[in-house]
Automatic annotation (TrEMBL):
Originating species: Vitis vinifera (Grape)
Protein name: Putative ribonuclease H protein
Sequence ranges assigned to domain Endonuclease/exonuclease/phosphatase in this UniProt record: 27-120
Family matches, as InterPro entries: DNA/RNA_pol_sf, Endo/exonu/phosph_ase_sf, Endo/exonuclease/phosphatase, Retrotransposon-Effector_Assoc, RT_dom, RVT-Znf
Highest taxon, organism lineage: Eukaryota
GO terms assigned for molecular function: catalytic activity
Domain Reverse transcriptase residue range list: 271-350
Domain Reverse transcriptase zinc-binding residues, every copy: 655-709
Length: 735
């Protein structure tokens, strides 16, 4: 194990990672290094986030090149703070170790210890973290900083009464104080969490004067009707049979496999048996699942069109498209505006009448609560206090008061606007229990000077930040042609790949992991490996000798084609109206104008480029042919029966990403001769199939191939092994 401390002299910092890499190469295979590296690796390792800097890239390259494992930090997120009122916190300290160390100490965990005087928190690497028996009492000196500790300590000391000699009485007093201290700590923790989970006392707030969209009478009747056997059956068989059992000890697999035995008794369970904490038994999970299915079917009738998450018929990516388009349109117009990005305090847990995160009902109840905020802001806009963005050729206003973002324009950028917005958020927090964390919320300016933006941020008690930002997990407001724009995407992929370091998978296991978890990303092993097979061959279907991954660029085109398919079918959707307002209609009357000459930042430009390929596989279907023939005489076409577009690659006439992807992936050359059935239909483990696939391609690292690829790792061609009067040189024919 080697300790490390980042050098303070600038001359010593140059080439530091190269020197440390040399030490790694000279060290024993079981190697560990730990200390203050004075650099973060991921943006999440800094409070409030950070952009990807060159020093972060160098540090990440050092870890990857040396094949070191970066263990997650337990019990804390950061190890350093500047100890200011508005602190800067980072994770500068860590332990890194090799795969051999991991094999020797597979249970290693990395944690943080209490800080004494330094601005760094000590870190510890435990190689044997198992705890045998109860943890003994240990006094923490930080408890002395509590303002009422000395007063309580004195009172507890005087309350203790004991008999016997003085030494015995003294020990009894210490034991009495210890018991009181443990009880006091438990009560303090209980009071802390009561703030989050207890409904506020006093007169409850009410929401009046808002415009609601009630559900239909038929939908209301369907919500209140008794559960049917079909609903329960569907809910049970949609659940994961391999999830851990509840406190009753039974897994969902029992209910699925024994459905015919239990269904008669299960259907008799009444709705009154439902409990909000639905982890008590598997029965309550089923009830919550059925209720969630019913709410999902009617939620779109009452939730405002600005809300896209968890609503049937809407997609959360619609909000990302709208946000990118209106921000880019606002920049192009030259008008001033701001975007306010909301941060909720423990969003799912704070809502009144809410459930734990992970409950099937939780996202739908959260959407209903968030809809109140949207309608409150719309009401304020009706009174001309706030003004949403006006975009497009017809200067139509589009409010995007969704779960995270509130845009408003000049001239509404004044003190009155800021105070109104702040009051609305505070009132909403009192009504719902879903409080907005202004300290972590951010405001972003469009065509606005930084001084003006900072003044607006002070009025809202939030932060003034710059573009680009992450909105619903995707970049917003940046330039896709710059490398910095894609830093969050690269970092996210890197975090996913970090988990592979401790997964000792065979070649077949890595293929399975790519196909199931990582959406066909390139195969990455535990260290540097030879690229045995060309990537173009790997992407081909299995029938053509590949692994069926498919090219990511073609898959992206197929996914973009889905937007073109949805556009004419969702004419009333908010995202459709935004795109139509900005780009106008196509001459065919169905599609949007696909000639996008301006900004490279707007995502619809990339979607429009797919139109030529997409249009090859579409045709128009007239639902009422007889009515059409009669209309020729009257020169009038009835609009009561809607026509529709059909997808020629699907028997149902509906668009699928898979069919478009396969059409774009057609190969002009004749299929190669490859033993597909022999390789993939054999009744052997998948890792054996993957090895046979390499053999069939003659890509196994035999000694003669190593002589060409990595001679320094291969046996010398002059060295052979003599065994029973046979010279064996390990060529590919030996297999």
């Amino acid at each position: 194990m080697h300790p490390i401390l980042w050098p303070k002299q600038l001359s010593s910092q140059e080439g530091f990672w190269v020197k440390l890499s040399d030490i790694v190469g000279l060290a024993s295979p079981r190697w560990c290094v730990g200390g203050d590296f004075n650099v973060i690796r991921r943006s999440l390792e800094k409070l409030g986030g950070s952009r990807l800097t060159p020093s972060m890239k160098d540090f990440d390259d050092f870890i990857s090149d040396c094949e070191l494992i970066d263990l997650p930090l337990r019990s804390a997120s950061f190890t350093w703070s500047n100890m200011q009122v508005n602190p800067v916190c980072k994770r500068l300290d860590r332990f890194l170790y090799s795969n051999e160390w991991e094999q020797a100490f597979p249970q290693s965990i990395q944690g943080v210890l209490p800080r004494w005087t330094s601005d760094h928190w000590p870190i510890v690497l435990e190689t044997n973290p198992f705890k045998w028996g109860p943890t003994p009492f240990r006094f923490e000196n930080m408890w002395l900083q509590h303002p009422s500790f000395k007063e309580n300590f004195g009172r507890w000391w005087r309350e203790s009464q004991g008999n016997g000699w003085e030494g015995h009485k003294f020990m009894r007093k210490l034991q009495f104080v210890k018991a009181k201290l443990e009880k006091s700590i438990k009560e303090e923790i209980l009071r802390y969490f009561e703030k989050f989970y207890t409904s506020p006392s006093g007169e409850s707030w009410r929401v009046e004067g808002l415009d609601w969209s009630p559900i239909s009478g038929e939908s209301a009747f369907r919500l209140e009707s008794p559960f049917t056997e079909e609903e329960i059956f569907k809910a049970i068989f949609q659940m994961d049979r391999d999830k851990a059992p509840g406190p009753d000890g039974f897994t969902i697999a029992v209910f699925q496999d024994c459905w015919k035995v239990i269904k008669e008794d299960l259907v008799k369970v009444r709705i009154s048996d439902f409990r909000p904490i639905n982890l008590i038994t598997s029965l309550y999970k089923i009830i919550a699942k059925v209720l969630a299915g019913r709410i999902r079917e009617v939620l779109h009738e009452t939730i405002h069109s600005t809300q896209g998450a968890f609503v049937q018929g809407r997609q959360i990516l619609d909000a990302v498209l709208i946000a990118n388009e209106i921000v880019d349109e606002k920049r192009r117009s030259g008008e001033e505006g701001v975007v306010f990005k909301i941060d909720f305090e423990k969003a799912y847990d704070h809502a009144s009448r809410g459930l734990r995160q992970g409950d099937p009902l939780s996202p739908f109840l959260f959407t209903i609560v968030a809809d109140v905020l949207s309608r409150m802001l719309l009401k304020v806009e009706e009174r001309n206090v706030l003004e949403g963005f006006k975009v497009g050729r017809i200067e139509q206003g589009f409010p995007t008061y969704n779960l995270q973002m509130i845009p408003f324009s000049f001239p509404a950028l004044g003190r009155r606007t800021m105070m109104t917005l702040k009051n609305v958020l505070l009132v909403f927090g009192h009504i719902s229990g879903l409080k907005v964390n202004l300290d972590k919320s951010n405001i972003y300016g469009i065509n606005l000077e930084q001084n003006h933006l900072s003044r607006l941020a002070e009025m809202l008690d939030c932060k003034a930040s710059g573009w680009p930002i992450l909105y619903l997990g995707l970049p917003l407001g940046g330039n896709p042609k710059t490398s910095d724009f894609w830093d969050p995407v690269i970092e996210r992929i890197s975090r996913r790949l970090d988990g592979w370091q401790k997964a000792y998978l065979s070649f077949g296991g890595r293929i399975t992991l790519i196909q199931s978890c990582l959406t066909h990303m390139p195969c990455v092993g535990e260290g540097k490996r030879d690229h045995l097979v060309n990537w173009d061959v790997v992407c081909k279907p299995k029938s053509r000798g590949g692994l069926g991954f498919g090219k990511i660029s073609i898959r992206n085109v197929a996914l973009l084609g889905k937007w073109l398919w949805r556009y004419p079918r969702e004419g009333s959707a908010l995202w459709h109206q935004v795109i139509l307002s900005i780009y106008g209609s196509h001459s065919n009357g169905w599609d949007v104008n696909n000639i996008v000459r301006w900004s490279h930042r707007c995502p619809w430009k990339a979607i429009a480029l797919v139109y030529q390929e997409f249009s090859k596989f579409t045709r128009f279907v007239v639902e009422d042919l007889e009515g059409l023939m009669q209309s020729f005489d009257r020169l009038h076409i009835s609009s009561s029966v809607p026509d529709k577009r059909s997808w020629s690659l699907s028997p149902s006439g509906l668009f699928t990403v898979k069919s478009f992807f396969l059409a774009l992936s057609q190969y002009s050359e004749s299929p190669p001769i490859f033993p597909t059935k022999f390789v993939w239909n054999a009744q052997v483990p998948f890792k054996v199939k993957s090895f046979v696939w390499l053999v069939a391609h003659k890509k196994v690292n035999t000694n003669d191939l190593l002589q060409l690829r990595r001679p320094y790792k291969a046996l010398s061609p002059d060295i052979y092994y003599f065994n029973q009067q046979r010279w064996i040189g390990f060529p590919k024919e030996h297999l």
